[in-house]
Amino acid sequence: MEFSTQTTASPHQIKTAALAAGVYADGQLSPAADVLDRAAGGRLRAIAKGEFRGRLGSTLVLRDLQGVATQRLVLVGLGKREEYDARAHASAEQAFAAYCVSARLTEGVSTLASNEVKGAASMRDRARAAAIAAGNATYHYDATLGKPDADARPKLRKIVQIVERADASAAQQGLKEGAAIAQGMMLAKTLGNLPANVCTPAYLGEQAKKLAREFKSIKVQVLEQKQIEALGMGSFLSVARGSYEPPRFIVLRHAGKAPAAKTKAKTPAGPVVLVGKGITFDSGGISIKPAANMDEMKFDMCGAASVLGTFRALAELDLPYEVIGLVASCENMPSGRANRPGDVVTSMSGQTIEILNTDAEGRLVLCDALTYAERFKPAAVIDIATLTGACVVALGSVNTGLFASDDELADALLAAGKQTLDPAWRMPLDDAYQEQLKSNFADIANIGGPKAGAVTAACFLSRFTKAYPWAHLDIAGTAWKSGNDKGSTGRPVPLLAQYLLNRA
Ligand code: BES
Ligand code: MN
Ligand code: ZN
Q1: Which of 59, 155, 305, 319 can bridge 191 by disulfide, Cβ–Cβ 3.0-4.6 Å?
Q2: How far from the centroid of its chain's Cα atoms is residue 70's Cα?
């Protein structure tokens, strides 16, 4: 999708396939709709007061309206004026894009950007969020359909935003960022949605290599079994052993275009490292999961997908400093070689781990990736993982769970989430929870009992992150949707990309 801006005071003169104008729930017209109404001899006002209720995200299409040049005037409901905030604005833009997709149009023009938005969001933030929302309306999964319906593929290529001259450059910048983030989300979604017999650890490795071919700023290294053994990743490999599919450890590097010395002067502290959980299928292993909804454990690599998606976005935006991505990928399967409850394994850090439940495998693969991260002398390490069902119980599918050893890092991530409508909620990491991870037979147990499961999982990871400022995002509730809308959401690519943008 492409987004551009145009400045004009005469929206009624725009010749296009579809032009969007906002209407509030009480029938009040947005400023742009008001101009159009006058050009159309007051007909809009009558419709807005009558059959169109202005419910947020609803649309009504008027064709060949006298006095306006557009083929279709798309009235978009804005909801109550006093509740029209950045999120409502993004919903309205998404509704217009969704209409354009369903009408099989290639281009639309939106006047919604000139709506007054409640709250502190800047024009750049609003434009970015609007582009993310609109971009997402064009996502369509058909990779594994027997007969993909080419006609069902969205044709929408471009949305033009009408803005005031003073807003044009901020809007353009926000739209560009939003378009890149939407691209990253689409990659994350497709990887998440692909079934585990297609999206294997080797497949993720190939996708990372493909990114490196597409973008010059990205270099990638895909480590295989032997190389992972040489690194001493005994915890990660113990999970991988149970599966026929061989593991992969993916190292991505985005080099900022500025020369290294210059970048160093600006950010003395080293790169940000993103670490993704890449379990391509989580059966639970010997501690096997119940059958109901087990298919959804193909989404257990959504952390890894968000790392690849974020790299896609930041490469497209040519982010001017170094970012490292690490993905630890394998399957968690029951077999004669699988981990047994009670097994003790030695992690790359040297700490031994008693595996009391083989279904707590995410932390077993992440701990070795977190130890590997030390070699980059990072300014910050952020891991992203569909780590615990307990996090879904605590926060549902609204907020991602955020755990951090560093307040500044936590605040920056919370702010980035707010800014991109991809919110996170900070959770505790008190030392007192560490007691639950005591083992009689190893340095640490891999589960901490039924209480505070999301917290003890984070506490486990914290044992491996002493060398740098660290944050952990538990996306178990936010990475995908269940039920009729089953599918990957692309979260938290917006949060991560925005966090990186804000550092630049
Ligand atoms: N991938 C799951 C977490 C998960 C479960 C995410 C359901 C979304 C929905 C993770 O590997 C897991 O199985 N965690 C266990 C940990 C427990 C054994 C301590 C869980 O949450 O039940
Ligand atoms: Mn599991
Ligand atoms: Zn898992």
Answers
A1: 305
A2: 35
- Is 401 near ligand 1, meaning CB less than 6 Å away? no
Contact between 97 and 160 under an 8 Å Cβ cutoff? The reply is no
What mean pLDDT, rounded, does the chain reach? 96
Q: Between β-strands 272-282 and 380-385, what pairing exists: parallel, antiparallel or unpaired?
A: parallel
Q: How far is the CA of 389 from the centre of ligand 1 (A)?
A: 5
pLDDT greater than 60 at residue 98: yes
Nearest to 309 by CA among 270, 269, 278: 278
Structural fold of domain 2-163: Leucine Aminopeptidase, subunit E; domain 1 (3.40.220)
Q: Where in the chain is the domain with CATH 3.40.220.10?
A: 2-163
User: What burial class does residue 244 get, using C-beta atoms within 10 Å of its C-beta: 0-12 exposed, 13-18 middle, 19+ buried?
Assistant: exposed
Instruction: Give CA separation, 175 vs 1, 127, 171, 180, 359, in Å.
Output: 10, 5, 6, 9, 42
Query: Does residue 17 contact residue 106 with C-beta atoms inside 8 Å?
Result: yes
Counting other chains too, the contacts that 165-173 makes at CB distance below 8 Å and 24 or more residues apart are: 165/7, 167/113, 167/123, 168/5, 168/7, 170/122, 170/123, 170/124, 170/127, 171/5, 171/113, 171/123, 171/124, 171/127, 172/4, 172/5, 172/127, 173/124, 173/127
Local structure of residue 348 (DSSP, 8 states): T
Is residue 453 in contact with ligand 1, taking CB distance under 6 Å? yes
Question: Residue 412 pairs with which residues in a beta bridge?
Answer: none
pLDDT at 9: 87
With contact defined as beta carbons under 8 Å apart, do 420 and 495 qualify? Answer: yes
Q: Where in the chain is the domain with CATH 3.40.630.10?
A: 180-503
Structure confidence by residue, pLDDT tens digits, 454-499: 999 999 999 999 999 999 999 999 999 999 999 999 999 999 999 9
pLDDT for 42 beyond 80:
yes
Domain 180-503 has CATH 3.40.630.10: yes
Distance 158 CA to ligand 2 centre (A): 41
Contacts of 421 (CB under 8 A, 6+ apart): 86, 87, 90, 129, 132, 494
DSSP 301: G
Give the residue numbers marked as catalytic: 289, 363
For ligand 1, whether the C-beta of 335 sits within 6 Å is: no
> In angstroms, what is the C-alpha Rg of the chain?
24
pLDDT tens figures, 357-384: 999 999 999 999 999 999 999 999 999 9
CA distance from start to end of the chain: 24
* Predicted model pTM: 0.97
Here the tokens at position 399 are: 């907020």
* Residue 390 beta carbon below 6 angstroms from any ligand 1 atom: yes
Distance CA 299, CA 188 (A): 11
Give the alpha-carbon dihedral of 112, 114, 117, 123, to 10 degrees. Answer: 110
Place of tokens 């007969």: 147
* Backbone phi and psi for residue 33, each to the nearest 5 degrees, phi listed first: -65, -30
